Amino acid sequence: MACFASHFEDRYLPLDPSFKDGMCEDDYYELLRDIPVMVMGFGWEDYHELDSARLGAQLMSYLFEPPLEGYDEGETGERVALVDGFAPEYQREAQRVPDNGITLDAAKRILRGRKWLGLRNWAEYINQSTGNWFLDTDNE
């Protein structure tokens, strides 16, 4: 199975690591049951674990509104918890960000040019709006 998975990935797309790690049975049942592709989208769990992410990911994520409805609920939401964990100098700067964050449409409009490409890409990534199926799909 591992040999097949390696050849398949070389030619087509990445598969779930369990196929190369020998964690799957050799009878191909799991492979035939569904297409075990690796998706890399930013999902609900990723958003709720931002407080343990790298500082840059935390700061960039705070700039933008929560990606999906129900991700952030009022005063007790993830955005409030996230900014509370920032160092004081970042908390002061965070006060300049709109209460609900910058919308994706506004980000695309104001973050033009190469200088802002990384930040614009991050906004698209957390909103699953990159145009790349693997980045716009999560495990949920």
Concise description?
This protein is mainly α and 140 residues long. It has eight helices and no strands. It has two domains: 2-33, no CATH class; 44-126, no CATH class.
Can you describe this structure?
- The protein is mainly α and 140 residues long.
- It folds into 2 domains: 2-33, no CATH class; 44-126, no CATH class.
- The protein is built from 8 helices and no strands.
- The chain has helices at 2-11, 29-33, 44-48, 55-63, 78-84, 88-94, 104-110, 117-126.
Averaging pLDDT over every residue, what do you get?
Answer: 85
Question: Shape, please?
Answer: elongated
* Structural class label: mainly alpha
Distance from N terminus to C terminus (CA atoms, Å) equals 26 Å
**Count of extended strands:** 0
* Subunit arrangement of the protein: single chain
Gyration radius (Cα, Å) is: 19 Å
How much of the residues is beta strand, in percent? under 5%
As for the number of domains, it is: 2
Largest sheet entry: none
What are the segments in which pLDDT stays under 50 over at least 5 consecutive residues?
none
> What's the helix count?
8
Binned, the helix content reads: 40-55%
Element order: H for helix, E for strand: HHHHHHHH
